[in-house]
Design a protein that fits this description.
This protein is an alpha+beta fold. It contains 13 helices and 15 strands.
């Protein structure tokens, strides 16, 4: 058994020392993703003793126990957990191993993770909401306004009766689009195109069968966010990776966040699946994003660290501003934290998930105002505006053979964090 279960005395003794260690200790700022570190605004987020932001440090040590159980049970090789409250970091810890095959490498706090579907909220959704608040895009706009020929849903009883897909339908996963499409299917359907070719995914989404009338059924779909990516790119004239770098990550000083991390950063990336085709390390795990979209996709492809996501979470909790940089307006952040009018029954905000009775990401004790998202590689971020709190869990549970599950861990950590909160 790994010795992760610290005694109450040990936790109390170490809290004042460990939690006050400078947040950027050990990081290499010469290795930014997608931008020059010198161009980035300072992103230092203060690291404090848990008690100064309302946590009992001994109770907060139960996070160690939950992560230790998951690692011991083989659900993930390792993890990095970060807790943010009142704009400061109360906990940032690395557990277990970053890699177990072919050799063992210990996890570190500055490990860069494949965020998988956290891309949908950290890049694509924020980009869309920026365009909304600029008055350039409306949530009620039809998608075919931006993508020519994008088909709506046709009533089978009257083919002339069409319900068009709108931006809000994509953001809330109520568009009626299929959940996914395998690259092999696209290769067969577009034999004259050479993959990767992001235009293939766009064309497929524009014309594939609609499985339901928009706005009537919830179906989580990566295609929704690939379409949103192309809407953003049409309107801004640049790729999503460049837009997000210049308008989200660079202003916030998130210098370890971006698409397509270069070889210099491979030593800090957590590998995902190892198969006959080799190891995926620094290359997006999602096949559609990797093989069809070339690593830059609205549904997946973003890489980041727990520290950078702490800054992102602090920005949301402070109403869209951090370190003097305003990324979103307070009302845009507010809109992302609630279901749009008429969509309340689906439990989805623009981009984010909320409690729907069967998803346990936010646990049992955090407030009803929580919104959150997860990633298939084993990542998650929970935002609780009422408690001014965020919980970030980054794992590579798919390493080495896609056999782990951190669904229970997410809930256990959320409960441990909530149970440690003793002051407002």
């Amino acid at each position: 058994m790994r010795k992760l279960r610290l005694s109450a005395a040990a936790i109390a003794l170490s809290a004042a020392i460990w939690f006050l260690t400078p947040l950027r200790a050990g990081r290499n700022d010469s290795d930014p993703i997608g931008l020059q570190a010198a161009d980035a605004a300072p992103a230092r987020i203060e690291r404090v003793a848990p008690g100064s932001v309302g946590f009992d440090p001994v109770r907060l040590g139960r996070v160690d126990e939950a992560v230790g159980r998951a690692i011991d049970d083989g659900q993930a090789p390792g993890a990095v957990v970060c807790v943010v409250r009142h704009g400061r970091v109360a906990l940032l810890r690395a557990y277990g191993n970053r890699r177990t095959v072919p050799d063992t490498v210990a996890m570190s706090e500055d490990t860069i993770f494949d965020l998988a579907s956290l891309t949908k909220v950290a890049a694509t959704t924020v980009a869309v909401m920026q365009l909304v608040e600029q008055g350039r895009l409306r949530l009620g706009d039809r998608v075919d306004r931006y993508i020519n020929g994008f088909e709506g849903w046709r009533n089978p009883d009257n083919v002339r009766d069409t319900t068009h897909v709108r931006i809000v339908d994509l953001l809330t996963h109520t568009s009626g689009l299929p959940a996914y499409v395998a690259p092999a299917k696209l290769a067969a359907q577009y034999p004259d195109r050479s993959l990767p070719d992001a235009a293939v995914a766009e064309d497929y989404a524009a014309h594939c069968p609609r499985l339901a009338e928009p706005g009537t059924e919830y179906r989580y779909s990566c295609l929704n966010f690939i379409v949103l990516q192309h809407v953003v790119e049409r309107m801004t004239g640049v790729g999503l990776d460049i837009y997000a770098r210049d308008n989200i990550f660079r202003p916030l000083g998130m210098s370890d966040t971006g698409f397509l991390p270069d070889g210099r950063l491979a030593r800090r990336c957590a590998p995902t699946t190892v198969s006959g085709g080799g190891e995926l390390c620094g290359r997006v795990h999602d096949p559609l994003a990797r093989e069809v979209c070339g690593g830059v996709s609205g549904n997946a492809g973003l890489f980041s660290t727990a520290e950078d996501l702490a800054v992102f979470a602090a920005m949301l909790l402070s109403g869209g501003e951090w370190g003097g940089a305003r990324v979103l307006s307070p009302l845009a952040v507010e809109a992302m934290s609630h279901a749009p009018r008429g969509y309340e029954q689906f439990g989805r905000t623009p981009g984010w998930d909320t409690w729907r009775g069967y998803t346990g990401t936010s646990g049992d004790l955090l407030s009803e105002s929580c919104y959150y998202h997860t990633g298939a590689t084993g990542t998650s971020i929970v935002i609780d505006p009422e408690l001014d709190l965020a919980v970030i869990i980054l794992t590579n549970r798919v390493h080495p053979s896609d056999g782990g599950s951190v669904a229970r861990l997410r809930s256990e950590v959320a409960n441990a964090v909530a149970g440690a909160l003793v002051e407002s």
